């Protein structure tokens, strides 16, 4: 697929090799995204479901934002957090899918170094924000079910805004160092990134210095943040389940279980695929590259695709508003 000319030429002496490395780290370098190794012959076909998921993600999340903005009765904690999640999904999917489809369908493997670092920042910071908003929504469900009379008092608009700001600052603060660290590294090996997008771990492997500390920082941040969010979400839903089973009305209990069950399914998909990717980087050296990269794509593509369906279509108020709008237009 890639010719030998795509690999940087070797230098004759150690000094010239060092100079070349330093020059390469400071100039505008072009990297080459390989895609899914071993499945290059299927790229065109893989792009079809990926494109379909992206279209659903964009249409669904834009619809949720438009409906909540237009319907004042939806300006409640649950729907405000849902809007934050929708914006995160739009940025996350748009920062990866269009570029990925160009690779699959047009063979556009080249990506500038700065563009690669920018994509990396959006992917890692907004994935962290996605996790944070899942936690915020779990807290909202906990308060709504376990303390419904004080729901709007506890989660006032001011507190929702503060929670949203904290989630955004956390994502930016912990993962802004990623592109900064990579910008400082010298690159004297191949320019080929064995991935469909600019993931930190895939790019840092191309550096020709000791990267153990850099890799440890990235994996530690992802593991700590993901684990803490997942544990807190689990605790929230454990309390929710305890309250649901204590409800006097069986019908109300089943309704609450159905709503929470669909939410938990989306959360499990996100954390299981993200956890698999982190675990593979740390321990799974024997996992085939195409399986690792395919699953790494899933935790970026599936949640933005599923969130509008689970949180939008299954939410009665949003569904009724969309149907009412469509009926008016048809009439």
From TrEMBL:
GO cellular component, one term: plasma membrane
Region: Disordered, residue numbers: 1-20
Protein purpose: Putative odorant or sperm cell receptor.
Presence of the UniProt keyword Membrane in the record: yes
Chief localisation class: membrane
Domain G-protein coupled receptors family 1 profile: from-to ranges: 60-311
Pfam families given in the database record: 7tm_4 (PF13853)
Membrane topology according to the record: Multi-pass membrane protein
Protein name according to UniProt: G-protein coupled receptors family 1 profile domain-containing protein
Keyword entries, A-Z: G-protein coupled receptor, Membrane, Olfaction, Receptor, Sensory transduction, Transducer, Transmembrane, Transmembrane helix
Keyword Cytoplasm included in the entry's annotation: no
Molecular function GO terms recorded: G protein-coupled receptor activity; olfactory receptor activity
Transmembrane segments: 42-67, 79-108, 120-139, 160-177, 219-240, 252-271, 291-313
Places the protein is found: Membrane
């Amino acid at each position: 697929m890639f010719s030998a000319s795509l690999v940087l030429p070797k230098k004759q002496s150690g000094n010239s090799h060092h100079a070349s490395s330093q020059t390469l780290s400071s100039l505008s370098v072009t990297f080459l995204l390989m895609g899914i190794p071993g499945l290059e012959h299927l790229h065109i076909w893989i792009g079809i479901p990926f494109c379909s998921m992206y279209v659903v993600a964009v249409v669904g999340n834009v619809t949720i934002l438009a409906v909540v903005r237009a319907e004042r009765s939806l300006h409640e904690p649950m729907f405000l957090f849902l809007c934050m999640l929708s914006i995160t999904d739009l940025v996350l999917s748009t920062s990866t899918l269009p570029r990925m489809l160009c690779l699959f369908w047009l063979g556009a493997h080249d990506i500038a170094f700065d563009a690669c670092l920018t994509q990396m920042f959006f992917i890692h910071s907004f994935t962290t924000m996605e996790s944070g908003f899942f936690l915020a929504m779990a807290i909202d469900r906990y308060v709504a079910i376990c303390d419904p009379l004080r729901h709007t008092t506890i989660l006032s608009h001011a507190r929702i805004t503060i929670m949203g700001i904290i989630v955004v600052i956390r994502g930016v603060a912990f993962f802004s160092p990623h592109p900064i660290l990579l910008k400082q590294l010298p690159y004297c090996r191949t320019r080929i990134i064995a991935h469909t997008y600019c993931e930190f771990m895939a790019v840092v492997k191309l550096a020709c210095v000791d990267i153990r500390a850099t890799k440890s920082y990235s994996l530690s941040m992802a593991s700590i943040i993901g684990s803490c969010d997942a544990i807190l979400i689990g605790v929230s839903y454990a309390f929710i389940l305890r309250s649901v089973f204590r409800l006097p009305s069986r019908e109300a209990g089943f309704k609450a279980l159905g709503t929470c069950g669909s939410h938990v399914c989306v959360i499990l998909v996100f954390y299981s695929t993200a956890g698999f990717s982190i675990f593979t980087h740390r321990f799974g050296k024997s996992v085939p590259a195409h399986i690792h990269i395919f699953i790494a794509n899933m935790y970026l593509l599936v949640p933005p695709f599923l969130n509008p369906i689970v949180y939008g279509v299954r939410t009665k108020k949003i569904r009724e508003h969309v149907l009412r709008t469509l009926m008016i237009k048809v009439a």
